[in-house]
Design a protein that fits this description.
alpha/beta; eleven-stranded mixed beta sheet; 11 helices; 18% strand; binds threonylcarbamoyladenylate; binds magnesium ion
Length: 317
């Protein structure tokens, strides 16, 4: 199969209506999208991604009416969050209607839904007239794509079309909130910091790891092929591994202990939102170079730093 890259939503919509797959840009990461109502399309998503069938997909919708076509009810807190953060990087787990195939939710009663904030993809969904099932457009456990080029590098020849919407604004996946027994619960740390969610609906519970419902919370995920370590003390670790070929991902300032050409700065002046947007691109870039080890400087555990550290801890697992 030839993989084409372009920005023609008509071509993309036609492919989706024919139950073929299209990679789509969102404000978080690129998604691997298919018609949610087509079991054939959903099956292809699992196949191309090599994702286990017990790991459910997020359904992307372009407005509240379409949302109501696929979910049975929306709790009060969910409504507050929808108003505050969508379109945007928020995913809610809500009771699904029968029209959503069980394959999409891996048999779970809730469906993950989100209203992405990307003009091209919103226009595409309106044109196709379909909600789209879409996991991140990377092979299972590899680094998520934040540009059309990343998708091409990973899925060339496996899908017919990549809709190129530029670089992703947030670069980290959506924050996932569910409501088991009516209690607002965090299932995945993401592009919206937990503090911002709690500002709107009060203290929220952390999904416990024994009962992992979002396999995105599983240990190994988001991983480069090169060995990656997360460092609390960059200078010390650069010295410790100095007998190897080291690539460093850091922020604010370069380390003096290694040539700058072997370092990538994710941001300056503690601008961690920019760091989040650059993180996966830096990991893709470092992984394509010939290093023995990638050392990433840990972020402070506040705001978006918490989500970045979460991804780093899974990337190293
Ligand atoms: O930002 C995002 O959310 C991106 C873009 C493409 O929208 N999508 C994304 O999808 O990150 P994916 O499949 O890579 O991660 C979705 C996570 C998985 O960890 C999955 O297990 C969890 O959401 N999930 C999906 N449906 C669920 C459900 N019904 N209950 C619990 N977890 C669910
Ligand atoms: Mg993913």
């Amino acid at each position: 199969m030839i993989t084409e890259i372009g920005n023609d939503i008509h071509i993309a919509a036609e492919l989706l209506r024919a139950n073929k797959l299209v990679a789509i840009p969102t404000e978080t990461v690129y998604g691997l999208a298919g018609n949610v109502f087509s079991e054939a399309a959903v099956k292809q998503i699992f196949g191309v991604k090599q994702r286990p069938a017990n790991n459910p997909l997020i359904v992307h919708v372009h407005n509240a009416d379409i949302l109501n076509e696929i979910v049975r009810s929306v709790p009060a807190e969910a409504k507050i969050l929808l108003n505050a953060f969508t379109p945007g990087p928020l995913t809610l787990l809500l009771p699904k209607k029968n029209i959503v195939p069980d394959m999409v939710t891996a048999g779970l009663p809730d469906v993950a839904v989100r209203l992405p904030d990307h003009n091209l993809t919103l226009a595409l969904m309106a044109e196709a007239g379909l909600p789209l099932a879409a996991p991140s457009a990377n092979p299972y456990t590899y680094i998520s794509p934040t540009s059309a080029m990343h998708v091409l590098q990973m899925l060339n020849g496996k899908i017919p079309y990549i809709l190129d919407g530029g670089s992703c604004k947030f670069g980290l996946e959506s924050t996932i909130i569910g409501f088991p027994k009516g209690v607002p619960t965090l299932y995945r740390k993401g592009a919206i910091p937990i503090e911002e969610i709690e500002d709107k609906i009060g203290k929220i519970k952390l999904a416990t790891s024994e009962k992992v419902l979002a396999p995105g919370m599983h240990a190994k995920h988001y991983s480069p092929k090169t060995k990656l370590i997360v460092s609390d003390d960059l200078e010390q670790d650069i010295q410790k591994y100095s007998h190897q070929k080291i690539g460093v991902i850091t922020y604010n300032v370069y380390s003096n202990l290694l040539a700058n050409e072997h370092q990538l700065l994710l941001c300056r002046h503690d601008d961690f939102k920019t760091a989040g947007a650059n993180l996966y691109g830096a990991m893709h870039a470092m992984d394509s170079r010939d290093y023995d080890i990638i050392i990433v400087r840990k972020f402070p555990d506040t705001g978006i730093g918490i989500s970045i550290n979460d991804r780093l801890s899974r990337a190293k697992a």
